[in-house]
Specification:
The chain is of the alpha/beta class. It has four domains: about 15-175, Methylthiotransferase, N-terminal domain (Rossmann fold); about 185-275, Transcription Regulator spoIIAA (2-Layer Sandwich); about 300-415, Transcription Regulator spoIIAA (2-Layer Sandwich), CATH 3.30.750; about 425-475, Nucleic acid-binding proteins (OB fold (Dihydrolipoamide Acetyltransferase, E2P), Beta Barrel). Helices cover about 35% and strands about 20% of the residues. The protein has 14 helices and 18 strands. It has a five-stranded parallel β-sheet, with helices on both faces. It has a five-stranded mixed beta barrel with strand order 14-15-16-18-17. A three-stranded parallel β-sheet has the order 6-9-10, with helices on both faces. Helix 1 (about 15-35) crosses helix 5 (about 150-160) and helix 13 (about 355-370) runs parallel beside helix 14 (about 395-415). The longest helix is centred in the C-terminal third of the chain and has 24 residues, at about 395-415. The protein is globular.
Length: about 475
């Protein structure tokens, strides 16, 4: 029985959508006036962080385009610069702040430039406050839940209004989103499709629930409409995005699950691949594995973050699974899809991690036989429970990180060597540099350096001739 107390959707009200459209039109009038005066209004979208940030930036680019700006890869000479930031690791924040700092010189040369900073970093109150105080040339900030409001913030500033830096707690409490935000995609062959926003997991090290809000699922018909349009225009590689895609639909009244989305998309005609990320092991169900195995388009790649192989550390991380449970999922994936590529995330040096805990992580890695991992040295995020835990010495974390990489590199090389002599289908990258080998990705998302002529964004059957730790090399089979 469907729980009818759950919401039907989290869409903004019609009057709010109309307000966004009105602001877009007002800014468009401004850029039209610039053109009549002989100026070319340009906008630069600077992106830091994960695939969800990239997807958000494609919507920022869509709004900029609708408002009459030409998109530019560089902020130099632009009338509008929007910086989309990340907060998952300290390094990402520092990189974003450095780039924002460099914009001071651009604005000095072009005082009419409007600078807006959004994303996860400024969805933390201390970062929004610091931006307001220490970066006086920044005009406004916007939280992750306010992307559709950017035209209004921009219009207000162009009309001579004050700088705008929100009270983050109030902005994040407004978690409605708009299906009317246009999109300018960075690739014609590959596309991100957000199926949900936010996270309910509250892993003790992770800032995401605090900067992206609670889980909100898009309606299945809106997702299907977007995917159908992509397939119809010849998109070859579609990735469904969510902080935990396995949780999709839990907040809707439809009774729809993520595996249902996989099955519906798999019914579409067209030559394309379907990917998704990220999955949480506690919600990686047998039904999801079956939906993948049954699908003709679902990529044989599963990204399944482990984080630690120690049950004690996993409990401290609030991950809500054990190493045994994790390995059972890996076993089920390989039983259902023997050719599956499994990748993972691992954190080294979580507070309280002992040598024994770390050895357990290495043990799980050897048993799981990941094709590749994304590994990180623990970085405390202000506002998370783990930030209040006693950190390990840097030399301990660094030494363990080196051992982890050494262990995984040996596994990755062995896994890649197993592809030599096989014929794999490779989708070439969009940008193929003159004089350089073309590159592409296998169904399992492995990088392939190709010999022979290749058009961008197309499938090629390829014989793998050699391998190294980080990729494959292959000859394109001529049709």
């Amino acid at each position: 029985m469907i729980d009818t107390t759950k919401r039907e959707n989290n869409m903004i009200a019609p009057e709010a959508s109309a307000g966004m459209a009105k602001a877009v039109a007002a800014v468009r009038a401004h850029t039209d006036e610039m053109r009549r005066g002989g100026q070319t209004p340009r906008a630069c979208i600077m992106t830091f962080g994960c695939q969800q940030n990239e997807a958000d930036s494609e919507r920022l680019a869509g709004l900029a385009d609708a408002m009459g700006y030409e998109l530019s890869a560089s902020p130099a000479g632009c009338s509008l610069v929007l910086v989309n930031t990340c907060a998952v690791r300290e390094h990402a924040e520092k990189k974003a702040l450095s780039s924002i700092g460099q914009l001071k010189h651009e604005k000095a040369k072009n005082p009419s430039m409007v600078i807006g900073v959004g994303g996860c970093m400024v969805s933390q109150q201390h970062r929004a406050d610091a931006l307001k105080k220490s970066y006086p040339y920044v005009d406004f900030s916007f939280c992750t839940t306010e992307l559709w409001r950017v035209p209004t913030f921009l219009q207000t500033r162009l009309d001579g209004g004050p700088r705008r830096f929100p009270l983050v707690s109030e902005s994040l409490s407004e978690t409605d989103f708009s299906e009317d935000v246009p999109v300018v995609r960075a690739s014609r062959a590959r596309a991100w499709v957000s199926v949900m926003y936010g996270c309910n997991n509250f892993c003790s090290y992770c800032i995401v629930p605090y900067v992206r809000g609670r889980e909100r699922s898009r309606l299945p018909e809106d997702i299907m409409r977007e995917v159908k349009d992509l397939v119809a225009t010849g998109c070859r590689d579609i990735t469904l995005l969510g902080q935990n895609v396995n949780s999709y639909g839990h907040d809707l009244s439809r009774g729809v699950k993520f595996s249902d989305l996989i099955r519906e998309i798999s019914k579409l005609d067209g030559d394309f691949r379907l990917r998704f990320m990220t999955s949480h092991p506690k919600d990686a169900t047998d039904d999801l594995i079956s939906a993948m195995a049954e699908s003709r388009v679902a990529s044989r790649h599963f990204h399944l973050p482990l984080q630690s192989g120690s049950d004690r550390v996993l409990a401290a991380m609030n991950r809500r699974y054990t190493a045994e449970k994790y390995l059972s999922i890996v076993e089920k994936l390989r039983a259902a899809m023997p050719d599956i590529v499994i990748t993972s995330d691992i954190i080294v040096g979580f507070p309280g991690e002992t040598e024994e805990d770390f050895e357990m992580t290495l043990d799980v890695m050897r048993k799981a036989q990941f094709d590749m991992i994304y590994s990180f040295i623990f970085s405390p995020r202000k506002g998370t429970p783990a930030a209040n835990m006693e950190e390990l010495p840097e030399e301990t974390k660094s030494a363990r990180f080196s051992r982890l990489i050494e262990c995984q590199n040996a596994i990755s090389k062995e896994k890649n060597d197993a592809s030599v002599g096989k014929t794999l289908r490779v989708l070439t990258d969009d940008a193929l540099e003159p004089g350089q080998l073309p590159t592409g990705r296998t169904d399992g998302n492995k990088l392939v350096h190709l010999s022979g002529h290749a058009e961008p964004g197309e499938f090629y059957d390829t014989i793998i001739t050699r391998a190294d730790t980080f990729g494959l090399y292959g000859d394109i089979i001529k049709a």
